[in-house]
Amino acid sequence: MKTTSFTQVVASVLLMALATNCQVLHASSCQAEGVTRTVLQQHDIDVPGKDTVQDIVDFGPGTTFPRHTHPGEEVIYILDGLLEYQIDGKPAVTLKAGDVFFVPAGVVHSVRNLGNSSGSELATYILEKGQPPVTCVQ
């Protein structure tokens, strides 16, 4: 029978609390069914009033994340799938695994998974401190 030490239990509880806290700090009112966001890290940076957040964003087959903005730049690396990015006023851009994309601060955009399987991106944000990371736009 496997035994678990008190230290292992405490470490597990602390890690779960830390993960939950990161999710709460990064929570947003802008949600989309079939899209999940996993916070990898969040740090202050040497630029006053800014911090950086790195997420993996998973898109279920055929899902769309609606028009939204970020209070800072978004640097995107496509991990998997075929994703279409639509920046207001510009032609849509379709990206596959290994492609990169940049969204300037405050620019309205949306993302759609064009594939029949899941797609994912590594999203790195340089954000204004204290602002919600994502704001939906009607």
From TrEMBL:
Pfam families: Cupin_2
Record key words, sorted: Signal
Keyword Glycosyltransferase found: no
Gene3D superfamilies in UniProt: Jelly Rolls
Presence of keyword Disulfide bond: no
InterPro entries (alphabetical): Cupin_2, RmlC-like_jellyroll, RmlC_Cupin_sf
Signal peptide: 1-27
Protein name per its UniProtKB record: RmlC-like cupin domain-containing protein
Domain Cupin type-2: 56-117
